[in-house]
């Protein structure tokens, strides 16, 4: 059963996961079509970040199924490395490699994982640095960059693997308010280019503007979802309304 | 490497008066005074959870040596030479001249000390790195064996290791027709490198564990294998963190090499004994050993200073 673009790029169905006695994911289900941008919102502890980590097999699930391009992620025979080449991920804490320059950070994975020639990779890496507007910071080490700049390098590093889908895990949560915008602009440009994105965020304005679909999660399940215009104005579930009233 | 405050019992400084004084026999006045001292002590006692030790707070780290120590040592040598001179028989050559006379021989012995320290450090570091990686292996049996070896050699007295190496290793190795002699200094170098190995293994394990988990996660998300992650992301960052404690270990190893004199290696310590026996002048005893001490100090002191400066530089990040 080959995957075709008219099927969901990511299909999460009835995923359960517990860490010891704590039930983190409680039968969560959602679909992401190719080119879609979905935002996942919800109170902390709702399992948003964990869900993203399940999608690229950083965290194994207990029950349910996650299909990425028709391939079951939680299959013991799965080639995890092949999966992770298709799925890029950006973290809250950037997690750049502090002992390498910004450009090296971007080039490492394509050279050592994809085994591509260095010259070609370097050209692409420079292009990516231009794309995130950091062409003058190629030789800087992560420690010399601001949070927003580091996060943009992290986005470029992930893009260098030419993934089919990008996962963003609260990428602006650790940033100074004045640098949040530059990161969001970068993500918006990506979305406009048609990149499939799963975004966990607390930036409601951003979510409203960028998302095709918004998912509100609480206690490990999707409580409610819908297009942003509908979702923010006429949510039906009391939990959603309570959450929105607290942060809007 | 980063030692957080724990709930483990913390060694308290020795107190003259125990917290529960048996007041029965004492007069009330004495008891009050005793309790007064106790209360005053409690007021100045450190909080139950002391601040986390600084990142460089390895158990090996000695109080930093300062230039004052160097001057004190030289002053002591001058004083000892002077006193020795005063006590010497008038006909004998001066103490200073005797020291100078034996300097070339002492230098030869000291060179052996340095050679042994280099070799033991080299062998120990190579083995220790392998053992340290085994300590973080994903295979339980490998981890178990590595843990046993590390704990065993780390907690064995160096002198015991030296004796075992001297007694258990043959004096020559016969491989086919070639005979490789194993002189005493080589055997004891092996003994020392076992201790170094265990300490380096522990350094590697600690350094790897001190790297934030996000580095592993990011590498995994970029589809690096575990080996690639270790080689390209984790270990390069560990090297920097390991360098100061590693140099500390080297300095400790170097001042530990005179231990080999006990098993008969003719390094500087043994030679000093030989010289004293040959001269047979009791006034030489103190200046001679102090002279030897100065050699070690002058060699290790710059290393200690450099380590401290490295630690300071690495902390700012």
Compact overview of the structure:
By secondary structure, chain A is of the alpha/beta class. Chain A has helices at residues 48-55, 80-86, 102-112, 118-131, 147-159, 177-192, 204-210, 228-233, 238-247, and strands at 10-19, 22-32, 37-41, 63-68, 71-72, 87-90, 165-169, 196-200, 213-218, 221-226.
Could you characterize what this model shows?
The complex is a heterodimer of chains A (248) and B (317). Chain A has a single domain (10-247), classed as P-loop containing nucleotide triphosphate hydrolases (Rossmann fold, 3-Layer(aba) Sandwich), CATH 3.40.50.300. Chain A has 248 residues and is an alpha/beta fold. Chain A starts with 9 loop residues before the first strand and ends with a helix. Chain A is built from 9 helices and 10 strands. Chain A is globular and about 55 Å long. Helix content of chain A is 37%, strand content 24%. By secondary structure, chain B is mainly alpha-helical. Chain B has 2 domains: 1-53, no CATH class; 67-315, MetI-like (MetI-like fold). Helix content of chain B is 68%, strand content 3%. Chain B is built from 10 helices and 2 strands; from the N terminus they run H-H-H-H-H-E-E-H-H-H-H-H. A two-stranded antiparallel sheet of chain B has the order 1-2. In chain B, helix 5 packs across helix 6 (184-210) and helix 9 (268-279) runs antiparallel to helix 10. The radius of gyration of chain B is 26 Å and the shape is flat. Mean pLDDT of chain B is 81; it is low at 1-13, 17-26 and 33-62. Classes of the chains: A alpha/beta (248), B mainly alpha (317). Chain A binds chain B through residues 56, 58, 80-82, 84-85, 87-89, 91, 93, 95-99, 108-109, 112-113, 143, 154, 157-158, 161, and chain B through 212, 214-215, 217-218, 220-225, 228, 232-233, 236-237, 240, 317.
